[in-house]
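dumping this here so i dont lose it
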């Protein structure tokens, strides 16, 4: 046992006295010189490398070789990198790819070949990339694409071919993509001078929304104008976001380009009948309230082996459903939403694939989501009737028991005496009224009647303009006019005889 203890102490002494650089290496195993290795990331960017480093770590999942001077790629150079998911080769001097370049890269999801010198893509240049989702080929010199250049890229979602020299593109089969649910196709800033309009109209709605054709020498064709105008009115992002950059050649001269949406007078003579039939399968309009359930069926002309959906947020929906779980894709291919939310509004597109179906076998739903209107409260007649009765009872009680004026009280002789109440202007005027007397019963020119009375009135002297006021006491007896009490004014009653006569009945 003693020798084991001595051996352990000796080893500890050697470890402490050794150089730190020998115990803790500065770079991981197999990391190329001047490159940066961090876990499963390997970056050799901006090192002016003329060729790919020979030894690469097998655990690399993301490899960055951009901003170098690479001119060619060896066949099979990715064989040790079975876990590779992202490969960046942009900003190099690659002129061609060749067969077998991407062997053993079946798990690659993103391939960046932008800003190189590629002139053409052959049929087998991209073979072996079955899981590829994003392909960046913009800013090259591509002038030719093989008819099946993208065959086998069944998972491709975004394809960027902008800023190249392409004069044509096959929209009917997308150069081998076929029924692939492609979401983005960038063909901007090329040399596309002839585009088959029926093939554009037959594309699925989700691809129309991501089809970028601006900055091309498009022909000033009536059918193409009507199609682009229809897409612009529908609000498709690829057209509405770059509306000013859609131009066409008016006289087949490169310098005669005009902006399509700003010079619509150029298409005034175009017949609207040319636009009919371009959109053969318009979307189905659906109205749904927030909180309701919704189910969409993918109606196609033939049975489908596989059905996928695209949401308004450009999310590819396959079984079991969306990432947040609010949308489900059922085994029969239909789409189900258990509880509709405001963000579910927009165009849902299903794409059905099968041996008897073409790539344009789609069905579109334009879903409009709105909030439910609150229902008005029912009119309750019971409460209103009770309220009306209570108000009526209060008014009756006020009429019976409330005094007619503040300061009045009932007396034993049924007379009302108002205390501390100032005389109103009407009372002052009525105080100037003079004598009221009855007509003599023996007047020959009139019929005697106890119900007729003659009243002599004196008009008021303050602002009445000849109009008279009569004040009669409350206890006036019609059958005993002699007992009538008058409110005498400050002037004598004898002056009223000269004012005039009024007869009342």
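and the seq i came up w/
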């Amino acid at each position: 046992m003693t020798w084991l203890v001595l051996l352990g102490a000796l080893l500890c002494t050697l470890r402490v006295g050794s150089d730190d650089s020998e115990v803790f290496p500065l770079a991981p195993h197999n990391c190329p010189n001047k490159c940066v290795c961090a876990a499963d990331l390997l970056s050799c960017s901006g090192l002016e490398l003329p060729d790919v480093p020979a030894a690469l770590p097998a655990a690399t999942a993301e490899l960055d070789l951009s901003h170098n001077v690479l001119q060619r790629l060896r066949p099979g150079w990715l064989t040790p990198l079975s876990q590779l998911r992202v490969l960046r080769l942009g900003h190099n001097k690659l002129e061609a790819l060749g067969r077998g370049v991407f062997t053993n890269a079946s798990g690659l999801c993103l391939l960046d070949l932008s800003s190189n010198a590629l002139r053409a893509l052959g049929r087998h240049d991209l073979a072996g990339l079955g899981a590829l989702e994003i392909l960046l080929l913009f800013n090259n010199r591509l002038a030719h694409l093989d008819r099946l250049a993208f065959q086998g890229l069944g998972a491709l979602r975004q394809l960027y071919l902008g800023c190249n020299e392409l004069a044509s593109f096959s929209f009917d089969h997308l150069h081998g993509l076929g029924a692939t649910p492609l979401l983005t196709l960038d063909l901007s800033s090329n040399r596309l001078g002839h585009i088959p309009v029926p093939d554009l109209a037959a594309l699925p709605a989700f691809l129309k929304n991501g089809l970028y054709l601006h900055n091309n020498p498009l022909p000033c064709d009536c059918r193409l104008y009507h199609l682009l105008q229809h897409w612009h009115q529908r609000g498709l992002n690829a057209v509405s976001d770059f509306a000013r950059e859609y131009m066409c050649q008016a006289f087949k001269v490169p310098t005669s380009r005009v902006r399509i949406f700003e010079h619509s007078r150029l298409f005034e003579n175009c017949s609207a009948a040319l636009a009919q039939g371009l959109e053969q399968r318009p979307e189905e309009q659906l109205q749904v309230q927030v909180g309701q359930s919704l189910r969409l069926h993918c109606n196609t002309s033939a049975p489908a082996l596989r059905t996928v959906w695209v949401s308004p947020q450009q999310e590819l929906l396959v079984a079991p459903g969306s990432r947040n779980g609010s949308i489900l894709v059922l085994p029969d291919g239909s789409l189900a939403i258990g509880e509709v939310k405001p963000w579910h509004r927009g165009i849902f597109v299903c794409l059905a694939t099968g041996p008897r179906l073409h790539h344009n076998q789609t069905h579109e739903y334009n879903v409009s989501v709105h909030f439910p209107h609150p229902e008005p409260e029912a009119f309750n007649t019971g409460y209103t009737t009770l309220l009306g009765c209570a108000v009526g009872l209060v008014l009756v009680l006020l009429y019976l028991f409330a005094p007619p004026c503040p300061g009045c009280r009932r007396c034993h002789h049924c007379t009302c005496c108002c205390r501390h109440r100032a005389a109103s202007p009407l009372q002052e005027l009525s105080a100037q009224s003079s004598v009221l007397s009855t007509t003599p019963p023996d007047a020959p020119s009139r019929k005697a009647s106890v119900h007729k009375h003659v009243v002599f009135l004196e008009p008021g002297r303050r602002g009445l303009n000849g109009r008279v006021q009569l004040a009669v006491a409350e206890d006036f007896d019609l059958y005993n006019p002699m007992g009538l009490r008058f409110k005498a004014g400050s002037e004598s009653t004898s002056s009223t005889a000269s004012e005039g006569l009024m007869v009342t009945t």
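The chain has a mean pLDDT of 75.
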